[in-house]
Write a structure and sequence with these properties.
- The protein is of the alpha+beta class.
- It has two domains: 42-282, DD-peptidase/beta-lactamase superfamily (Beta-lactamase, 3-Layer(aba) Sandwich), CATH 3.40.710; 288-393, Peptidoglycan synthesis regulatory factor (PBP3), Domain 2 (Sandwich).
- The chain contains twelve helices and 16 strands.
- Strands 2-1-9-8-7 form a five-stranded antiparallel beta sheet, sandwiched between helices.
- A hairpin with a 2-residue loop joins strand 8 and strand 9.
- The N and C termini lie close together (10 Å).
Length: 394
Amino acid sequence: MRVTAILIAFALVLGSCEWDQAAAQETPAGERTAPKPPKLDARSWVLVDADTGIYLAGKNPDQRLPIASTTTVMTALVALEEANLDEKVTISERAERFVGFTYSNVGLISGERLSVRELLVASLVPSGTEAVYALAEHLGDGSVDEFAEEMNQEAESMGLKNTNFENPAGIDARGHYSSARDLATMARAAMEYPTFDDIVDTEQATITTQNREIAVSNTNKLLYTYDEANGVKTGTSPKAGPCLVTSATDGDESYVAVVLDARGEEYRFDAARTALEYGFNNYEHEPLARKGQVYEELQLPFRRDESVGLVAAKDVLGPASPSLEVERQVLVKAAPPTAKAGQKLGTVEVFVNGKSVGSSPLITKRGYKEASLWVKARYAAIWPAGRLWAWFLD
């Protein structure tokens, strides 16, 4: 018995050493070779993975800056959460006053009626400031300030720390700002709405009032020159300079790029494209936890030498690159007396650079039955009080 105990202890030590060795073979994050990001001539920029929000590259991503009419990404997000897209809105005299006054407008006239959907098109495609204000008045019960406060509440609920809105259209104001990273988060949230996704990917559109049709063109030139581009919003103002929030998809990869205060009106499109292509060229979107792969061996009740594999029930996808640190956190329940094949007994959650990108249930690879009384008795014999009983069984 003493020899048996020594052999068991020695086996446990060996097992512990093998586990430590496997962990040590992982490459520390600091030793990974990161792809060299591009140098863009902009005050701030950011590139994120569209599906997970993982930050991939950028400069001054959290700097608070004026953002011009990229503001309407949040305006649209709040509208999509609150409004009936088919309800009609009347253009007010206050909204009409922006025609000819601001950088971009559609030319809507006081008294004209449009649906919420058409106002979103007029706001997002040609950056119609009067359309933005008409929408804000309608959804703010006549108060633009009230609607701006709703935008701030939405930003707070999304955890945006570097964003504050004074108006719905991005007209320069001292307390009106956001950051490249926050704008990327807004864009990802808005693009979950198919209506927004369709509108910002539209090159040409027609909006209709009760007595005329108005043709509009998208100010985002990437839609015309870059096949992978599918949104999102331009913005320019004296204080903000040329800005762009854009997105692109190629196969199963999607990225969002934000450029703030770029060197020039045309350069912002080149800069955003450079950032997006950096994503496509240096990252892959692949399973970081794979369906059917064992992530835990769960010891069966009362059976020291028998376990069941717990496998991922589905793939967990995310960006992959030598520069990204991937961790998997496994949480398992205590093994029940009996289980069927495919029974959920845990979870594997995947983190990229410390941020969760998703999880999968862990399910039993096979079923097992409850241990017999004889097996339970032998198991109990390993405890000190049962050593005499173990000698008898052996």
